[in-house]
């Protein structure tokens, strides 16, 4: 999932002029001595790599062994690196990057300048960092009581492992406790209200089909996050905007968008969204029909938006958990090789060796011995760890590690290949200076890792590995089931991934009034999703999404999902694949490997547009959704047939939908008319 980079956030201020780059303006210094600037960059590279190593080691120690001591050590290192970064930022700020004749040096200096909040005075800089830390802490410690709040019962079933879930050895929720076991330290406690988002709450949303239970966890998690975060978030918005303006940007959203080197970035992203929206609406319409069949018209209107708690996920962003409700051909299998992996005696180590062999089969690099010595590939017994899978670059060109609590499941096999792709990216750009050891833009790391995974979660590849065989079922039906499971993960995700930063940018741009209302307006407009219960401005539902309160941009996930298919298609072309895109496997293709290496090696030293131009052999320099649409074309045709009798492809919202979150002013007909106009506008923009 995660590509973990050491804390190398850098900054600037001092004697400013205005510098125009790609129609974006930010402030630069007046020192035009280029020899001095290059000397600064050389020193910076050495010191920043060292600092990054120390911080990353301290973070690794903490997340793989959560103790108070390790937390303190990590915070100390972070404080030191913060100091170093502010100092470096001031030095960098003194130069006028536009006057540097060396384009690579110019690019490095600009990278130091752009993303920074160091234009803030010391107290405000510390305050915003503190706020973000507090918000993460509140989020990470949010807990809810089990549904029904029964007192502790020692006979409740054990909590199931991921493996149990993947092998379908679970029941749908007839017993609200079946997903849940109290955390170990709390087993004596009579009222164990310690269910966390991951894994307990997420599992209920994924596996329960009891509407009241889904509603309960949906609502309770928001109660435990939003209201506690709202005031802090509003102050964070204020400070982030101040930092952006002081650095020469219009607002914090404007500053975030500079990472994409594209003056018309907003329009470009919107165009991409518009091209995938028709496919999303076909999927949406088909899924809604199945939900109506499961939950009834009283819960889901036949031509309306879908209530957010029924889609298998806290944010309705990934629908793969409701595959059981929407499977195109229930008599054909949903491809899952977990049982076969267990039968063949797979181990986590073997899964990683297999992933390494996938990349070396393309002619790419093996991982160094330090990887095998240092990584945490399974959950260690008797110590507390953070289990989210991540790939780590320790900034010293030697140490690369993965942290993953691997279980023998198909999902973890895919995740293993995904994380190993991040490591491969690190290895490929290792010779770049520290400031360029990164993706070409923020979407690239995830896109490359997912593109490789598309070749792994793929019937042809699984067959080649001897993990899947279809002797009895209609291949067309198996293919449709496969494409549906991919669509529930990728296509369903697109409008969510698009809307999060639309909302965030609107808050940075227009202020914090009616934030919750605007969140739901966008959820409705892009996703066609409504809250399952009334919301007001004392709720703060965006706060239920970690990336919002932890200051992590989100549009990169939208673009990464588009770009992964574009990269995948070009790798497939290089490998000589003909036929359906979803059937392409690049395994053992040296030509695909060479192209992948060309994409990864430059890191961030070149603009993303140049890398895309190379990748597409000059056809385009833009991120394009054509490959994604092509990949899902067979499913889209099938969906069109399924939806032929539907009154509406997409959704229309009525007064009641909008009244769930729009502020109610006045009363009677004027109010009805006002909300009616809003609803009409929403429909028009679909
Ligand atoms: O945040 C993540 C990963 C780290 S890159 C855990 N993801 C996004 C999310 O959870 O919303 C992966 C999918 C999108
Ligand atoms: Zn990742």
UniProtKB/TrEMBL annotation:
Binds 1 zinc ion per subunit. Pfam families: Peptidase_M2. Keywords: Carboxypeptidase, Disulfide bond, Glycoprotein, Hydrolase, Metal-binding, Metalloprotease, Protease, Signal, Zinc. Disulfide bonds join 387-405. Its EC number is 3.4.-.-. Its cofactor is Zn(2+). The keyword rRNA processing does not apply. It is an enzyme of class 3 (hydrolase). SUPFAM superfamilies: Metalloproteases ('zincins'), catalytic domain (SSF55486). Residues 1-22 form the signal peptide. Belongs to the peptidase M2 family. This is Angiotensin-converting enzyme. The lineage of its organism: Eukaryota, Metazoa, Ecdysozoa, Arthropoda, Hexapoda.
């Amino acid at each position: 999932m995660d590509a973990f980079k050491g804390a190398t956030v850098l900054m600037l201020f001092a004697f400013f002029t205005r510098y125009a780059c790609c129609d974006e303006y930010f402030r630069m210094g007046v020192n035009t001595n280029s020899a001095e600037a290059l000397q600064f960059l050389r020193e910076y590279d050495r010191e920043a790599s060292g600092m990054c190593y120390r911080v990353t080691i301290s973070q690794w120690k903490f997340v793989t062994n959560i103790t108070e001591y390790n937390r303190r050590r990590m915070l100390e290192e972070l404080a030191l690196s913060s100091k170093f970064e502010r100092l470096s930022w001031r030095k960098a700020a003194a130069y006028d990057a536009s006057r540097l004749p060396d384009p690579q040096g110019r690019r490095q200096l600009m990278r130091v300048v752009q993303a920074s909040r160091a234009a803030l005075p010391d107290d405000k800089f510390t305050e915003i960092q503190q706020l973000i830390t507090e918000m993460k802490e509140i989020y990470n410690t949010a807990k809810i009581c089990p549904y029904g709040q029964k007192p502790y019962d020692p006979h409740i079933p054990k909590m199931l492992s991921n493996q149990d879930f993947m092998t379908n050895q679970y029941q749908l929720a007839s017993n609200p406790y079946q997903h849940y076991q109290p955390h170990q330290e709390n087993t004596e406690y009579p009222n164990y209200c310690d269910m966390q988002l991951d894994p307990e709450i997420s599992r209920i949303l994924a596996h329960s089909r009891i509407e009241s239970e889904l509603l309960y966890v949906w609502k309770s998690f928001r109660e435990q996050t939003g209201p506690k975060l709202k005031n802090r978030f509003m102050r964070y918005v204020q400070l982030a905007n101040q930092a952006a303006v002081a650095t020469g940007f219009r607002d914090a959203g404007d500053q975030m968008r500079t990472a994409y080197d594209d003056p018309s970035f907003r329009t470009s992203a919107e165009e991409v969204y518009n091209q995938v929206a028709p496919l999303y609406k076909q999927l949406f319409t088909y899924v809604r029909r199945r939900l109506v069949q499961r939950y009834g018209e009283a819960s889901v209107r036949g031509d309306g938006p879908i209530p957010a708690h029924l889609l298998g996920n806290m944010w309705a962003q990934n629908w793969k958990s409701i595959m059981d409700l929407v499977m195109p051909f229930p008599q054909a299998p949903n491809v899952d090789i977990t049982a076969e992996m267990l039968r063949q005696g797979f181990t986590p180590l073997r899964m990683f060796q297999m992933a390494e062999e996938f990349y070396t089969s393309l002619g790419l690099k093996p991982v160094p011995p330090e990887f095998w010595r240092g990584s945490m590939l399974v959950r260690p017994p008797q110590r507390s760890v953070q289990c989210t899978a991540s790939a780590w670059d320790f900034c010293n060109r030697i140490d690369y590690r993965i942290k993953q609590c691997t279980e023998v499941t198909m999902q973890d096999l895919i995740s293993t290949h995904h994380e190993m792709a991040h490591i491969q990216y690190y290895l490929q750009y290792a010779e770049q200076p520290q400031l360029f050891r990164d993706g070409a833009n923020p979407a690239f790391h995830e896109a490359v890792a997912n593109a490789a995974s598309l070749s792994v979660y793929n019937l042809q590849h699984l067959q080649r590995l001897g993990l899947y065989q279809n002797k009895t079922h209609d291949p067309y039906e198996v293919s449709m089931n496969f494409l549906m499971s991919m669509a529930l993960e990728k296509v369903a995700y697109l409008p969510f991934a698009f809307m999060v930063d639309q909302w965030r940018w609107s808050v940075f741009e227009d202020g914090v009034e009616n934030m919750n209302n605007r969140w739901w307006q966008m959820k409705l407009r892009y996703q066609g999703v409504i809250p399952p219960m009334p919301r007001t401005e004392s709720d703060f539902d965006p706060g239920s999404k970690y990336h919002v309160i932890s200051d992590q941009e989100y549009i990169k996930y939208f673009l990464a999902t588009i770009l992964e298919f574009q990269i995948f298609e070009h790798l497939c072309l290089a490998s000589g694949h003909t036929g359906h895109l979803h059937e392409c496997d690049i395994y053992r293709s040296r030509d695909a490997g060479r192209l992948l290496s060309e994409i990864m090696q430059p890191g961030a030293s070149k603009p993303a547009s140049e890398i895309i131009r190379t990748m597409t052999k000059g056809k385009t320099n833009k991120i394009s959704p054509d490959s994604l649409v092509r990949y899902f074309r067979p499913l889209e045709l099938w969906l069109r047939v399924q939806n032929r009798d539907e009154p509406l492809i997409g959704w229309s919202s009525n007064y009641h939908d909008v009244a769930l979150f729009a502020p109610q002013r006045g009363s009677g007909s004027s109010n009805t008319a006002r909300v009616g106009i809003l609803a009409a506008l929403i429909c028009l923009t679909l």
